[in-house]
Amino acid sequence: MLNFPCHFQVLARHAGLHARRHATTNTSKSLRRATTTLFLAGTSAAVAAYFFLPDISRGAPTCDNIPLNPSHFTPVKLVSSTVASSGTKILTVTIPPELLPKGSDLFAPIWSVFIKDDDIQVERPYTPLDGVDEEGNMRFWIKRYQHGEVSRWLYSKQVGETIEIRGPLKTWSWKDDAWDEIILISGGTGITPFYQLLRTVFSENSSFQGRITLLHSSRIPSELPPRDVLDPLLKLAQHNPGKFRLKLFVDSFGESNGQSSTDLEIHQGRIGKDSICGALHSASRVPWWRSLFSRDSDVSDRKILFLVCGPQQMVEAIAGPYGRNYSQGPIGGMLRSLGYKSHQVWKL
Ligand SMILES: Cc1cc2nc3c(=O)[nH]c(=O)nc-3n(C[C@H](O)[C@H](O)[C@H](O)COP(=O)(O)OP(=O)(O)OC[C@H]3O[C@@H](n4cnc5c(N)ncnc54)[C@H](O)[C@@H]3O)c2cc1C
User: Fold this and answer.
1) Closest residue (by CA) to atom 6 of ligand 1?
2) From 3, 4, 154, mutation site for ligand 1 pocket: most ligand atoms within 8 A of C-beta
């Protein structure tokens, strides 16, 4: 994910979301919400600083005899590495099951781990696609950036080698009944947190009654997520008609000249206002031009949530830029012009 937001942001932004997710129009609730937001943001910034500021994380010790934790690195084995597409791989690492921390909430979506490049002592966050299983396996879809420090190092790792990770780090908290409709918008490897979320939301134990649409875009068809990632999502869509839809976009068909060589339905062009409005259920739909005539678009009263994850330019175009000090920043881009407010948008 080119230009993924800096990982220090994650906890501070996450806390702000908690307060915003429970927004109502009631004034006293708004006040309470504002207080909660400030409190959570402050607390989380402190926690984030404690755990994630570079000096501290670089200095975090490595321990192989206490459970996985954000404050130290745990050595794990790379047990599988498969080229998924040009410049991307699916990697599986295994953590000894006795080092898995107890507590079901820790591994509730969406969470990531930091992986440390121990040649240069630099870490980056990565999202395990399926979380972690009972045997301690975590599977990642990783992309190698041409000049990227950690991604190139990670891509070069061989099966049997040891990698150090720390976490889990919660990047967003799911609640079954908070939203009627959720639109996930991703670009490139930005699909990984959504994959993790969807696998949980549509598991047997979930009581989610709303609808989710995932709009994913890649530059060209060969850069779309590999079938290991797409097929389970397509199956979810098939088994949950009316509850989950997946729409794939490419900027262009590249050399295939408008012809997709796969059985996938792929739309040409970037994700724009039309595709966003078209993704909403008809009951939630307001034509985008309505916002030209009405300042207070009624869409902001609805229980609709947008989660956006991908290259920084894409996030900015859709939801506005990130703010200073690792905050969410104001809502901008297409979602703002469609009338959505900050409690309805989260930039991962
Ligand atoms: C919560 C979270 C979860 C994530 N999950 C995943 C995941 O599941 N899979 C995944 O692949 N990624 C994921 N990422 C992104 C990942 O953390 C890294 O940001 C990514 O791998 C790039 O790291 P890097 O060290 O290789 O690149 P960096 O060294 O940080 O460089 C970033 C970009 O800048 C470019 N760049 C670097 N140096 C130069 C230069 N001198 N001139 C021009 N350009 C340059 C690089 O080519 C690269 O495109 C996640 C990020 C976050 C925040």
Assistant:
1) 126
2) 4
Q: Are residues 238 and 163 in the same domain?
A: no
pLDDT greater at residue 268 or residue 51: 268
> Phi and psi dihedrals of 50, rounded to 5?
-60, -50
265 close to ligand 1 (CB < 6 Angstrom): no
Task: Indicate if 233 and 265 belong to the same structural domain.
Answer: yes
Asked whether the beta carbons of 215 and 244 are under 8 A apart, the reply is no
Q: What is the pLDDT of residues 141-192, one digit of tens each?
A: 999 999 999 999 999 999 999 999 999 999 999 988 899 999 999 999 999 9
Number of domains in the chain: 2
- Contacts of residue 132, defined as CB under 8 A and 6 or more positions apart, other chains included, come to 95, 100, 107, 138
166 and 178 share one domain? no
Residue 14, in any domain of the structure: no
CA of 218 to the centre of ligand 1 (A): 16
Mutating to test ligand 1, I would choose from 81, 93, 116, 145 the residue with most ligand atoms within 8 A of its C-beta, which is 145
**Residues paired with residue 85 on neighbouring β-strands, in sequence order:** 88
Q: Which atom of ligand 1 approaches the CA of 7 most closely?
A: 53
Kindly give the number of the ligand 1 atom that is closest to the alpha carbon of 129: 8
Q: Which two tokens stand for residue 255?
A: 């050399």
| pLDDT > 60? residue 120 | yes
d(CA 146, ligand 1 centre) in Å: 10
User: pTM for the full model?
Assistant: 0.83
pLDDT digits (tens, 9 = 90+) for 224-245: 999 999 999 999 999 999 899 9
pLDDT digits (tens, 9 = 90+) for 276-288: 999 997 655 555 5
The Å distance, Cα 147 to ligand 1 centre, comes to: 9
